[in-house]
Design a protein that fits this description.
Blueprint: E1 2-7, H1 12-27, E2 35-38, H2 45-52, E3 63-66, E4 71-74, H3 81-99, E5 105-109, E6 112-114, E7 129-131, H4 142-151, E8 156-158, E9 176-179, H5 181-194, H6 199-202, E10 211-214, E11 219-221
Parallel strand pairs: 1-2, 1-5, 7-10
Antiparallel strand pairs: 3-4, 5-9, 6-11, 7-9, 8-10
Amino acid sequence: MKSYAIVLKDNQISQTGFKNLKESSSKVNNSFEINEFQAVVPDETSKLLKEYGIQWNYPWEGVVLDFASGLRKSAYKTRDPKARVACGLSHYKLWKECASGSEPFLILEHDSMFTAKIDFDIMNTKFNILGINNPLGCTRKSNDYYQAILNNSDKYQLVPYIDDRQIPQGLAGNSSYIIKPEGAKALIELVKEYGLWPNDAIMCRQLLPRLGVTKKFYTHIQNLKSTTTL
């Protein structure tokens, strides 16, 4: 398994988060090294969208029904729209790299922090993507999300439905997940079909039938200032 943390170059918040993340991984005795993956920055977004032949297709205001997918897309609070696109592209670049190889990737955002050692191999599960993050405080209806996981006896389980089925049901915070090459390929195809969305929206149960979460939580988010949200 290859491990990457998405980090903003020359950004003190991001660099501090990455330092804390590495220290937390060492404390729980993870056997892998976390590699720093340089995040896409806002000024690069137009060039990269053109280079990859994809388009951003998510609203900046209100709620839009996406007729192609049948899902309702709700705007995120965003200080700088290009920063939101840059975040999506950072994940997309890692999906492309994962899809071109044979190993699963552990993808982390800089605000992740380990609370337990990774003690399983996703290749031994039926899931193509597994979220490993504690949902509390990381997503809408986080208490419902948390309780739904605890109420399910499976070690590896489908992302829970906690809302209307037209609302994308994704990973909690999307800041920590393990993805197989098959999952990465599926995501790339979804972006081709529906356009690029925020990573925690396009990566949803409705579009990815093998999207799951672990019953045991391995990470939580650090209390850092967001680099994308208002």
